[in-house]
Design a protein that fits this description.
The complex is a heterodimer of chains A (about 350) and B (about 300).
Chain A (H helix, E strand, L loop, with lengths): L1 E5 L5 H25 L4 H10 L5 H26 L7 H18 L8 H27 L3 H21 L33 H19 L1 H11 L1 H6 L4 H28 L10 H11 L4 H25 L5 H21 E5 L6
Antiparallel strand pairs in A: 1-2
Helix pairs in contact in A: 1-2, 1-13, 2-12, 3-7, 3-10, 3-11, 3-12, 4-5, 4-6, 4-10, 4-11, 5-6, 5-10, 7-8, 7-10, 7-12, 11-12, 11-13, 12-13
Chain B lengths: L2 H30 L7 H19 L2 H25 L4 H19 L25 H5 L4 H19 L1 H11 L1 H6 L4 H27 L11 H11 L4 H23 L6 H4 L2 H14 L2 H7 L15
Classes of the chains: A mainly alpha (about 350), B mainly alpha (about 300).
Amino acid sequence: MIRIQARTEPSSIMKLVSPILAIALTLIFGCILFSAIGKSPAQALHVLLIAPLADSYNIGEMFVKMGPLLLCAVGLSLCYRANMWNIGAEGQLLAGALGGSAMALYFIDSESALALPITLLAGMVSGMLWSAIPTFLKLRFNSNLILTTIMFNYIALYLLIWAVHGPLRDPQGFGFPESAMFADSTLLPTLFESSRIHLGIVFAIISAFIAWFILSKSHLGFQIRVFGADEPAARYAGFSSKKLSWFVMLFAGALAGLAGISETTGPIGQLVPNVSPGYGYSAIIVAYLGRLHPLGAIIAAMFMAVLYMGGDLAQIEMGIPVAVVSMFQGVLLFFLLACDFFINNRLAFSNQATN
Amino acid sequence: MDSELIVQILFAAVKTGTPLLFIALGEVICEKSGVLNLGQEGMMLMGAVVGFLAAYGTGSAGLGVLSAMLMGCVMSLIFAVLVLHLGANQVATGLALTIFGTGLSAFIGSGVVGQTIQGFQPIAIPLLSDIPFIGKILFSHDILVYASFAMTFVLMFVVNKTRIGLTLKAVGENPHAANAIGIKVLRVRYLAVMFGGMMAGISGAYMSLVYTPMWVENMTAGRGWIALALVVFASWRVGRIMLGAYLFGLASIMHLVLQGLGWSISPNLLAMLPYVATVVVMVIISADKFKEKLLAPRSLGKTFDPRQMA
């Protein structure tokens, strides 16, 4: 007789095992799916997990994808800890790309050493602005943050598309909806020869450590943790929910904006309509997979980047639609949420029938 | 602006509002039971692609709608098991459902992108369609639009006048009290969530079988999210959802209207209108904090565990 029993205390081991279990279950699901459409499961696993890390070029590409995922996920982790349901990382990323790129185009003839820092800052400020509006609407007018941040994702997307068709379009670009290529002074330096790895990944990892420091070492972080764990207690202690909300949302907006501008000044080198293949949405899953812990997000973002690479390779080598990546992401989050059930519950084995 | 143009605009507003009406009716029932399903967009996309594939394969648009309804139910069941049985966070699970549905629909629909089918044809209702203005605006549509009218009135009756409606509201307002008087809270919530899935499925089928009629990745363009805002706009009242759906329908064809009037605004800027309108409406509706607290089902979004006491 197996039955489900509530644990007296949440299991801290299960908290760490759960993501690993969820990843394993997702891979099993992937194998079954690939066999169902007549592909070999072994080849599928190879393409999804091993091929992305097989040579130095692919590893480099993995880090290129990991950067924006991690930047967005670190911010979201703090937001979710503080019960701020920010689904707007995608829009904040696009706003950062748009605002920062406008600055980069302003510096198109400049060789100033300040051009790059100012461009990056413009991206961060744009991302912050894009998260500030829904935050203000929530705090001042009590509007639903989930829905407003989602709407701002769509608005940012159309704004960006409008900009590359209009004011920011390259005059010498034969009418393509793209900006001019940025000047070297506004491009992020690459870290190694023969790879596209750029400073963005460094920003991402530094931001994860900063967020970790804030969360676990500062009084502000303590307040965020109390808020997430027990909101009435936090209010009783006199913590200002407004101040915390502003802090986590602006922090997340700045990081997502930095992710956006790091994409256009990094691997892309200009502003294009499809800056992001949904990094801002995937980052939600990364944040959960990393247990809403900034350092956990590093490992989770790495896994997610491998999955993105795997999706690209599956399309090239096996002719599988790239949408398979977002399907796997959904499945992964399903399994994770299901496995999390066992943080608070356990299976009890006994010979007696229960009453 | 002449009256013929106004009639055409309002006709289009009803047509554009219909998928929103279907999906928001499903979501309001789900939310009335206390469950917030953010997976609407994913369920709708799955309904759209499965409806299209079934209609494409069999040549029958009716079978397409049925398959879409079934698919919506299956999708909502994944959500229901995680949220109701495993106590998973409703926001996260709903997001997972949307991400999953977006990917899966693009995956299984990749073979039929750009194909067209014979969707539902308009049927003018005798007599009613001859009424000036109203007849053209309301009674010259396809059968699914009429089904949405019928569904609205049936739900208004069921929610407001029957025991079923009372049970549903009891579960959403106070699941512990409902449980104490012998209502099977989880069973009611399962049914409500599956009803929501079914309606999202029809809504998707309307997009791919009537509105376009074809399948394109992400063709619902955020309508599942707008429907969630619509429920707030309607203060969880079935009748107001109909009004709201047509107003949102009007907002999303405003760009055609403005272009028709000769305004030269970039279509990309005008495409933002429905989303901006949604934000504006949300702000106006929610600004009165006290009122919203009074209207929203009290247990909305909260996990109910029958093992725990209130």
